[in-house]
Write a structure and sequence with these properties.
Elements: H1 3-15, E1 18-19, E2 26-30, E3 36-41, E4 47-52
Antiparallel strand pairs: 1-2, 2-3, 3-4
Pfam families: EndoU_bacteria (PF14436)
EC number: 3.1.-.-
GO molecular function, one term: hydrolase activity
Length: 56
């Protein structure tokens, strides 16, 4: 996966993000390929960090 493809994957996950209860600004979303991405966002919705997670 190229760097741009990974950015595209993060943007896909961002578009369907779900807040993780009990966290502080942590959201999880899925790409169209089914890659689960965890994101930490600022209060105004900007991404601080994003990374793929391993499904259990």
């Amino acid at each position: 996966m190229s760097p741009q493809e990974f950015v595209d994957t993060i943007n896909e996950a961002y578009s369907n993000k779900i807040y993780q209860e009990g966290s502080r600004g942590v959201y999880v979303g899925n790409s169209k390929e089914g890659i689960k991405i965890r994101m930490v966002l600022t209060d105004d919705g900007k991404i601080i960090t994003a990374y793929p997670t391993v499904s259990e």
